[in-house]
């Protein structure tokens, strides 16, 4: 093994070094990004199928790196989570999204709701409730217009602590939504244990609604189950008209996806809100 190892080992070492240098560089620029105001919040509309109205928006962070350009949250959120930087970043997203939504409400879209993604560390922070109450007080947004999106994996670590946190948030009047539903574990028992208000059907099911009978049936079952449990159900990643047709037929509450709109900067979202108002 040693014999043939030489070059290969060399290769892997320099490769790994390059990787960790990248990682380090990314980490330190991530650290500075907040101060330098390189982050932005984009918004993607959530459309109510019954009325065609934009009833909510999902806040999605964007990072415009000065040299590297736009970096996807799928790349830097895990790094932020690992390093703990997600705490100040997540708080900034919450503040920004709540303030923006309050401004839209004041402009006349008085029942617009905002959904904000919460990472595992954020969900598990000791003073989550207090920190959110402070943000709501400072921005003037009423709690019923804030929805927090968490994934099932956030709940698996410490169930009883998670139930406590969720109950606390519920008492504050904040809605909890379960993101990427159907992709994690023990989804069904969780529905019984945890106080959610909304299920978001993962894009992997929606994408294959018209080509894969199992995806179609699972989607149908999730919608029916949500209705029985009095949960609001949102389909994510809707890209085709046939998908909307199917979701309408089965009384899915809301849809979100590129077919209607990609995540856009606040100015663009505001234009869409005004357009909708005239209809
Ligand atoms: P997510 O919460 O599941 O968000 C949905 C992702 O799907 C977004 O990607 C959105 O742009 C994308 N999407 C929406 N409609 C469609 C569609 O029709 N087709 C396709 N192919 N994609 C669609 P994005 O913005 O790149 O975010 C990726 C992930 O990064 C999010 O997945 C979420 O897990 C995380 N993330 C984004 N912003 C935040 C944040 O502020 N805080 C935290 N903790 N995580 C965030
Ligand atoms: Ca989400
Ligand atoms: Ca999702
Ligand atoms: Ca996801």
Comma- or semicolon-separated keywords:
eight-stranded mixed β-barrel; disordered N terminus; binds calcium ion; 279 residues; binds ligand C2E; alpha/beta
The amount of beta strand, in percent, is 15-25%
Structural class determined from secondary elements:
alpha/beta
Distance between the termini: 72 Å
Number of strands: 9
Our Rg estimate from Cα atoms comes to: 21 Å
Organism: Funiculus sociatus GB2-A5
Domain EAL: 23-277
Protein name: EAL domain-containing protein
Account of the protein in words:
This is EAL domain-containing protein. The protein is an alpha/beta fold. Helix content is 53%, strand content 19%. It has helices at 2-33, 73-83, 86-106, 120-124, 128-139, 152-156, 159-171, 187-193, 203-206, 213-228, 241-249, 266-278; strands spanning 39-48, 54-65, 69-71, 113-117, 146-151, 175-181, 198-201, 232-235, 254-255. It has an eight-stranded mixed barrel with strand order 1-2-4-5-6-7-8-9, surrounded by four helices. The longest helix is centred in the N-terminal third of the chain and has 32 residues, at 2-33. The model is unreliable at 1-12 (pLDDT under 50). One calcium ion binds next to β6.
Compact description:
Helix content is 53%, strand content 19%. By secondary structure, the protein is α/β, with parallel strands linked by helices.
Indicate the topology.
Elements: H1 2-33, E1 39-48, E2 54-65, E3 69-71, H2 73-83, H3 86-106, E4 113-117, H4 120-124, H5 128-139, E5 146-151, H6 152-156, H7 159-171, E6 175-181, H8 187-193, E7 198-201, H9 203-206, H10 213-228, E8 232-235, H11 241-249, E9 254-255, H12 266-278
Parallel strand pairs: 2-4, 4-5, 5-6, 6-7, 7-8, 8-9
Antiparallel strand pairs: 1-2, 1-9, 2-3
Helix pairs in contact: 1-2, 3-5
Bound molecules: ligand C2E and calcium ion (CA) (3 copies).
Protein name: EAL domain-containing protein
Organism: Funiculus sociatus GB2-A5
Keywords: Phosphoprotein
């Amino acid at each position: 093994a040693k014999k043939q190892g030489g070059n290969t080992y060399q290769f892997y070492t320099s490769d790994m070094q390059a990787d960790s240098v990248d990682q380090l560089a990314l980490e330190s620029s991530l650290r500075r990004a907040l101060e330098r105001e390189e982050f932005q919040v984009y918004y993607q509309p959530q459309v109510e199928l019954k009325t065609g109205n934009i009833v909510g928006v999902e806040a999605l962070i964007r990072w415009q790196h000065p040299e590297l350009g736009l970096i996807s949250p799928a790349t830097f959120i895990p790094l932020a989570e690992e390093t703990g930087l997600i705490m100040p970043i997540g708080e900034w997203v919450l503040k920004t999204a709540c303030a923006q939504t309050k401004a839209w409400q004041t402009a006349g879209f008085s029942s617009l709701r905002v959904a904000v993604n919460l990472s595992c560390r954020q969900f598990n922070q000791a003073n989550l409730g207090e920190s959110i109450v402070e943000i709501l007080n400072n921005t003037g947004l009423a709690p019923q217009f804030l929805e927090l999106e968490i994934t099932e994996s956030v709940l698996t670590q410490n169930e009883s602590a998670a139930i406590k946190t969720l109950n606390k948030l519920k008492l504050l009047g904040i809605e909890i939504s379960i993101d990427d539903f159907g992709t994690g574990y023990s989804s069904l028992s969780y529905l019984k244990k945890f106080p959610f208000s909304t299920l978001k059907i993962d894009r992997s099911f929606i994408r294959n609604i018209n080509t894969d009978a199992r995806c179609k049936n699972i989607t149908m079952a999730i919608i029916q189950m949500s209705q029985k449990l009095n949960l609001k159900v949102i389909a994510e990643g809707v890209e085709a008209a046939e998908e909307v047709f199917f979701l309408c037929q089965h009384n899915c509450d809301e849809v979100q996806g590129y077919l209607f709109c990609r995540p856009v900067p606040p100015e663009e979202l505001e234009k869409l809100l005004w357009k909708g108002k005239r209809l």
